[in-house]
Amino acid sequence: MPGIDLAILGFPKCGTSALFRELELFPRVSSVRAASGSMEVPLPELDRVFDCQHRDFLVYKYAAGIYSREYIEIIYEARPSTKFLLCHRNPIKSLVSWHNMHRNIARKQEPSNHFASRQSDFYSNCSVLEYYEKFAKPMLRYDKHFERLARLVPSENIICISQHALAARTVKVASTVLSAVAGESVREVQQVSPHTAYADSVMEDISEGIKDELDASYSRLLCTIEDGGYFSIML
User: Fold this and answer.
1) Rounded-to-integer distance, Cα 198 and Cα 179, Å
2) Which residue segments constitute the domains of the chain, with CATH numbers given?
3) pLDDT-derived band at 84, boundaries 50, 70, 90
């Protein structure tokens, strides 16, 4: 079997880093990082991926890649056998987690070149609602971003993975992904106790209007995944 690329495209704050680290542990998997050592391989550094020769699997990640039509098109044109791994979770929880991360970046000024650091007056003290309206609202329309991905690459090239499954049994999920890509038999990911994180403890800070909006978007995404027959790992 020729080598297959595994491109982890997003969504941010949905377990993409955990999936990347676990896939790296498998002997058959090579990985590519940015020149800085970061897990995120942005568009200007995609040549690092395309220059890499491998026999089995090559994994790389850019959690914001799902938002870039150009990023997806370049990958698919260069290596049409690439499997696009899309991690997702309820965007309400992503909103809380993302807001907390950018607020911490702004307060610590690390990294200093991050947009939240450059606009620290806003991001260090903004409420969830203010953050949502200024930055996160268009990013959290998961259904729309998935629709664009589905128009650009065939359904058989897309694997959808819930963050709940990753948080509960990350290694099982990683092995399931590799088995599915290799055409091997796939064992069901067993259900375990729900994972509780920071985002679960501050849900009350979000208005009902935003919750309804994001719940509706996520419901549409899940329906699209199910109705389209995409390979999906859920709990």
Assistant:
1) 32
2) 4-102+141-199+211-233 (3.40.50.300)
3) very high
